[in-house]
Amino acid sequence: MLIQLPSGSPEPQGPQNADQEATFEAGLRRDLASAPIVSYDTMLGGPAKRAIDITIALITTPIWVPLLLVAAGVSKLRDRAPVFLRDERIGYGGRSFNCYSLRMSPTVKADAAEGAIANDAAEKVASRRIRWRNAFERLPQMLNVIRGDMAIVGPSPLSRAQLEPMKSARRYYLSARPGVVGISTIIGGSGDPSQHKIYAMSWAITTDALIFWDGVRALWDGREELWKPSFTQAKPGQSTSGIVVRRRS
């Protein structure tokens, strides 16, 4: 470490000054080590990923805007409480933003919970309804995509309290914009912090395409995912994106 002394300051001499310099340097190192963020990686995907997100958000506007308005109207008719919600979330580089969501009617949630415990057929129907409800709740986040706060595919947006205990995985989360379509269903689980590192180190446009397609298909298919990408380092020549796609039997 190089310590620049002020102009005109005498050169440190003797063991006492050396001890003082060592103490000062040790304290400075502790301060830097305890800082929440010293630096973070370049934004994952860069301009290419951002251009794809904007293109998808604008092209699909005639689809998700009417769906959002219909869902908001139905929810408002069932309950007079505010329809649109916003919560503080942490995005790329530690920047906070208002994450929008649609408040679905509690009646829908109760009906889905009752159907889930009735029988196997009702459980499949309820599972599909829950997935659709979650999709409708996230529709307002397309506005966050257009604003540049979020991406189509990426880590689920976390609050400041959720981000604090992540430790070393934090830098990988902060290197990407949070996504409307989360990665937790494909990589690990929602409570597994290693998912952010795996996604960041294995990212490719094809990776996002696989995750997006799986999320869309899950809305229509009552079964669980038929396949999941295996985010392990591929052998040379086996995969251009660093992942291996395995089909589940």
UniProtKB/TrEMBL annotation:
Keywords: Exopolysaccharide synthesis, Membrane, Transmembrane, Transmembrane helix. Residues 49-217 form the Bacterial sugar transferase domain. The chain crosses the membrane at residues 54-74. Residues 1-21 are annotated as: Disordered. The keyword Transmembrane applies. It holds the Pfam family Bac_transf. GO terms for molecular function: phosphotransferase activity, for other substituted phosphate groups. GO terms for biological process: polysaccharide biosynthetic process. It comes from the Bacteria. Belongs to the bacterial sugar transferase family. This is Bacterial sugar transferase domain-containing protein. It comes from Candidatus Viadribacter manganicus. The lineage of its organism: Bacteria, Pseudomonadati, Pseudomonadota, Alphaproteobacteria, Hyphomonadales.
